[in-house]
From TrEMBL, chain B:
Protein name per its UniProtKB record: PCI domain-containing protein
Database matches in Gene3D superfamilies: 1.25.40.990
Species in which this protein is naturally found: Brassica campestris (Field mustard)
Residue segments, region Disordered: 66-92, 141-200, 286-307, 393-422, 466-561
Taxonomic classification: Eukaryota, Viridiplantae, Streptophyta, Embryophyta, Tracheophyta
Domain PCI: 681-855
Membrane-spanning segments: none
Family annotation (InterPro entries): PCI_dom (IPR000717), SAC3/GANP/THP3 (IPR045107), SAC3/GANP/THP3_conserved (IPR005062)
Pfam families documented for this protein: SAC3_GANP (PF03399)
Segments of skewed composition (Low complexity): 185-199
Biased composition (Basic and acidic residues): 532-555
Composition bias, Basic residues: 489-498
Amino acid sequence: MAYVSMGEAHRRITEYLNRFCGAVSYQDSPMLCRLLSFSSNSPSLLSLADALNVFQDASILIRQSDKFSEYGEILAHLFRSLQSYRFGNLVEAYLAFEKFANAFVQEFRNWESAWALEALYVVCYEIRILAEKADKELTSNGKSPEKLKAAGSLLMKVFGVLAGKGPKRVGALYVTCQLFKTYFKLGTVNLCRSVIRSIETARIFDYEEFPRRDKVTYMYYTGRLEVFNENFPAADTKLSYALQHCNPKRERNIRMILKYLIPVKLSLGIIPKDELLQKYNLHEYMNVVQALRKGDLRLLRHALQEHEDRFLRSGVYLVLEKLELQVYQRLMKKIYIIQKLSDPARAHQLKLEVIAKALRWLEIDMDLDEVECIMTILIYKNLVKGYLAHKSKVVVLSKQDPFPKLNGKPVGS
Amino acid sequence: MWLRTIVVDTRHTRPLLTHHKTTQTRDIPITTVPTNNSSNQASHILSLLGRIKTQTNGGYQTTNYNNQSAGGYPSTNYSNQTNTPNQGNYTSTPYQNYTHDAANTHSSTVATTTTPVHYQQSYQQWPAYYGQTEVPCAPGTEKLPATSAVSQSFPVPGVTNETPASNGQPAPSYAQPWRQETDLSQPPSQQPAAAVSASNDAYWKHQTQNQQAHYPVPPQNHYQSPLETKPLYETPFQGHQRATYPQGMNSQSSVHQAPLGYRQPTQATPSVDTQRVSKIQIPTNPRIASNLPSGYTKMDKGSSAAGATQTPAYVSVSMPKPKVHATPVPEPGTLPKSLCGFVERAFARCKGDKEKASCQAALKKVITEASDDGTLHTRDWDTEPLSTVLNTDVTNTESSSTLISSLQNKSPTKRPKSRWEPLVEKPFVKSASTFSSGVKFGGWNQQNQNNKKSFESFQKADAVTDSKPTYSWQNSKPAYSWQNSAKKSFQRPVKRQRFSGGAATAIDDEASSDSDKDSTPSAMSFATSAEQTKRRDSRSKRFEKVQGHSRRNDIPRPNIANVGILHSRRGTALRLGEDFDESGCRSVEDIDWNALTVKGTCQEIEKRYFRLTSAPDPSAVRPEDVLEKALLMVQDSQKNYLYKCDQLKSIRQDLTVQRIHNHLTVKVYETHARLALEAGDLPEYNQCLSQLKILYADGIEGCSLEFAAYSLLYITLHSNNNRELLSSMSRLSKEAKKDEAVRHALSVRAAVTSGNYVMFFRLYKTAPNMNSFLMDLYVEKMRYKAVTVMSRSCRPTIPVSYLAQVLGFTNTSSEGSGEKETDSMEACSEWLKAHGASLIADSNGDMLLDTKVSTTNLFMPEPEDAVAHGDKNLDVNDFFTRTS
């Protein structure tokens, strides 16, 4: 930390105060954003933080002028937070920032126009980021992380401020997205429901009116929620919307969307091209897709095992696991085609024995009972048309379209 | 009637008082500020304050504070009051002024101040407000009576110039130490209780604690107010303490009485000897006391240390002497306190003039007799039956007494016990309440025995007060109102507590409010049957005895004193906790739970489970080694699950209250969880599992893998929540996945999610540990799904023997005996029929499932054991068999 003289410190702080008040009085939102965004680590903020450390009691400066003292509470908390932030004391920084945010939101409520919406976004973003950092610090100290939760309730408050008639309501979706991020991180996804309900049912919101980036984010998260619920058609719609509307230059975002969209599409019977997987570096799905194409149950199981942690964490494990049935279907189709080549007349009769043998070649040991069980499930889920003759241990396939394609419909519908 | 009015009057003079106070002292009027709910009142006060030009700005600020929030207020006041050296002066000054005024120029004081006007105003305003609300004391009319009554008493002080001047001086000095102490005690983090060492100290603590429990009102409140407004109070307190504690049981009891009596009409007290007066303070203040729990006790200590020499100063300070003193009544000091209490009690039970008169006569007789035969000082007046002086036709005793005591806000019978209130407190509290019953105007009346005229006038005043303010005793009015206001200010905070206070407070308040409500009717209609009265009388006496008894036990015996310490510590901690809740800015974590932890002494191995409704009693809690034996006993027990569950729950409870978290805890929960699983008691199982998760997370070794498997199974089979399943799966470590039970659970999950019934029932048969018990609960569903799938997919038939084998009806490797096979066949076909499947017999007589027909007919039957309330364990018959 470079040495800062008292005079210099004084100058920097006063300059910041002037800028802040100027930004507020001229409703200069971009400037205000710059003044508030901690995580940008901008040099001006860092130097201000140093100055604050030298000039211990900045509140004197704030009180000096009416202009400053009007925002005295906001600024005092902000300074304290910045100071702690500079020292790396993130929990303190968070606590001060939370107070600042409260004061700021209070002030924001009084501003009639929505000019400061961007600045509010910055505050919402910063508080979430700070809370995450503070939680990390708490965890490393062996304490229970709780700041993100606190940030969540503060964001909920902000949502309440924005959710109403008037120009500020377009900000609601941004806050919603921050809430999603918070809740997903906390694992309290069910808390999203109330926000979603108010976004989707409240008349004051016109979805198309929201900024595009928020819409994309919102769709991404709600799509993920649908994946959890295994509501694949809905997940498909939402994630596809996100994919279509997101910034095509942001590959990372696209990849994030695809991470969920691909399993969803797969379970709807739509298989992506390898190029897509390669382009967005989604190699974990390579073998899964391959297994589906080949009907290679072993490959699927290996792929699942190999990336188990990753799939479990992202929450697509169960979705991918369900692809097994499609793999069986593919396998049966293969056997059927081979049989057709040798004996077209009896090709529609698949002996369980044969299927068991095929599985053994894949190093999967199953007795006839189990194979029969799988077959009944396939027939029941309409992946195979036909019936199973229990007595003769034969699957009798329908002569017409024995292996119907899913064509975008989920299995079992 | 007069009883009622008097009771009532305590409340509403406050504005006046404040005002008065301020004018006189030119000091912090603050204190008196009522925390009224009604903005009406508040604004009124403000206006009052505004009128008084002499006021200092301090008062204004505080007022505002009060209105705003409880949080900031107390501290501000506090610092102002306590820390400023001026304060000490202040207190003394007002007092001096006051005494002088009272003695000489009552009227002059009044005149100078704007009080009268305000008073009127307030008077008019109140009725409307209070008329609606049910507050018994509230009605504006009542307030007036108070004043009048006061006025009456006041003249008295004027007449008796005991030692006003001298009094004024000492008071301040006292006040100051006290305040400082309280100040110290104020910081919530501090635990006065903990500091205690000697048994004697313990007792003190105990006292404090009692007060706390009793008046859980956080110290913040208006605690201040009493002090400031009324220097008098301080002294009384000290005096009281001194007098009370050093003395023996009897004296104590009397002391308690006195306080209670004091509480109502202040006038009554003056007649009593000085010490008593001081004592009286306490009762008056039950609410006050609540406000200053910690400081209060401390003060006690200090005062007791100070020694008896200071007493006189206090005495004089505390109260203007009533006229009565001039009369031939025995010197206050010569009468035993208990006798005074007795007399007060007796009078409190008189409702009409006639009764009073007869009572007076009877009392006179009794006392003369006693003094004649020299038992005046030796007799135990506290236990003396009132029936000796009260005729049976003079009923109403209990009703009035309850009224009064209820006002004190703890009638023995009514007060619900707080869950956390330490047991030991009880006696003390009770005694206070009991004694309170009789007091009221007793002292006053007694004095009047010889001065009938004044007595009558007093009554007259009462009568008038109801409808219209009587200013017959105008001079004294300001003084009285002043006192009254002090009282009121004490009470106020408590009221306020109802909204914000912790549990204990709420309870207390409830009690008080209840009784308040009751009070009016009971006071009005005293016509309770004589029998009833007698019964009540005896009951209250019984209480007294019990209390005296228990107190005796408590104080001297060191080990009990220790318990007292423990309790008091807990009390303190709890109180602190409440305070935090109050202020809302501190969290529960700041409570020192260590102070609340019980150390058990019970040696019984077997103990039934009861849900705790009060603080755990160490004598009923088993220490760790006993609990270990208890666990073994349960494990080896041949009795049924319900017995074991009960025992285990009580073990768990003992572990919890002692905050034992170790291998034993884990063992107990594991045992219980297993038993619960075995019995299919999922709620209990879940409770145990959630505790186990916490314990395992704390690093306590146990069968964590076994229970990880259970929890996986539970999520898979019962909660059906994908996210939960995913997260619990992702939490499994590599080692965990190698564990047999966990692997089994994971396979079961795979089988369930894929609907692989064959796999499921194979796993069912090979389940390790108690996994199969959890699977049991899913078997029905799985079978139904399987049959649905099969009947849809298979054509034309499926032999039942195959179904029996695949759906787990056969026992493991049942090939051995054909008999068993037929049994399982039977079971399977029964099950199929019950679910609507259609069975046919083929040429060999083997049963077959007709799939095509069955497809459309399958249904899930209502479980046979289903009951309306969803828990068959709650079935009445079952309940009886369990309890028998």
